[in-house]
Specification:
heterodimer, A: 96 residues, mainly beta, SH3 type barrels, 5-stranded antiparallel beta sheet, 5 strands, B: 87 residues, mainly alpha, 4 helices, 52% helix, 0% strand
C-alpha cells in the first residue's frame, strides 16, 4: 500500500491548503529521504474536521529526513538534519 | 494563507529561555486542563486532530498572547461551544 520505501527521495508539496495539516510551512517544497514507513494511518487533515475514522482517507505515514541546508539554506548549521512524520499525499517522488 | 501557529523556522520571536528543572505544571489549574482534555478525548467529544486544529484556529492575538495551557483551555472551550456541548 505504501508508495515509497526507505531511501526513496521525495519532495514535499509547495504550499499547504487551508485547514489543518501536519506538514509545517518550513518543510514545504523541500526534498528529503524516506527513513521509515510506519503503516497506514487516517489523514489528520480530514480527522481535524471531525470526520469519522471509518469514512476518512487512510494513507501511508513516513518519517522523512531533511538535510539542514535544504531546510534553512545558508543559515543551516552543519551537521544538522530534521525529520518529520508526513502522510503520503504531502509527498511526490523526486528524481535522485 | 498561513496560520498564526505555523512559525517554525521564523526568527524575531526572541530567545528561547530554558527553565532548569521545569515542572510538568506551573499551576494546579494546568493539571486540571490536561486531565479535562484527556477525558473529553476518551469520551469522544472530539478527536486529537480536532483539538490541534482548534488551537490553530484561535484568533492570532489569543494564540500569540496565551501560554501553552491557556491555549489548551481556549481550544477546549471553543470546541465544546462549536459542538453545542457548552451554551
Amino acid at each position: 500500500m505504501a508508495r515509497f520505501a526507505p531511501g526513496d527521495r521525495v519532495r514535499t508539496r509547495a504550499a499547504n491548503p487551508q485547514g489543518h495539516t501536519r506538514l509545517p510551512r518550513y518543510l514545504c517544497n523541500r526534498t528529503g529521504t524516506i527513513e521509515a514507513v510506519h503503516g497506514i494511518y487516517p489523514l489528520p487533515d480530514e480527522r481535524a474536521l471531525g470526520m469519522a475514522l471509518e469514512s476518512c482517507t487512510k494513507e501511508a505515514l513516513y518519517t522523512v529526513i531533511f538535510e539542514g541546508g535544504e531546510v534553512w539554506r545558508e543559515r543551516a548549521i552543519e551537521p544538522l538534519s530534521v525529520s518529520a512524520d508526513l502522510w503520503e499525499s504531502y509527498l511526490a517522488a523526486e528524481r535522485a | 494563507m498561513p496560520s498564526t501557529h505555523d512559525v517554525g523556522g521564523a526568527s524575531g520571536f526572541g530567545p528561547i529561555v530554558r527553565e532548569g528543572g521545569e515542572p510538568a505544571f506551573h499551576h494546579e489549574w494546568e493539571a486540571r486542563v490536561f486531565v479535562l482534555n484527556r477525558r473529553l478525548l476518551e469520551l469522544g467529544f472530539y478527536n486529537l486532530d480536532e483539538f490541534r486544529f482548534a488551537i490553530e484556529r484561535l484568533p492570532p492575538e489569543r494564540y500569540l498572547g496565551s501560554t501553552y495551557y491557556e491555549k489548551w483551555f481556549l481550544a477546549i472551550e471553543w470546541l465544546l461551544a462549536e459542538k453545542g456541548v457548552l451554551p
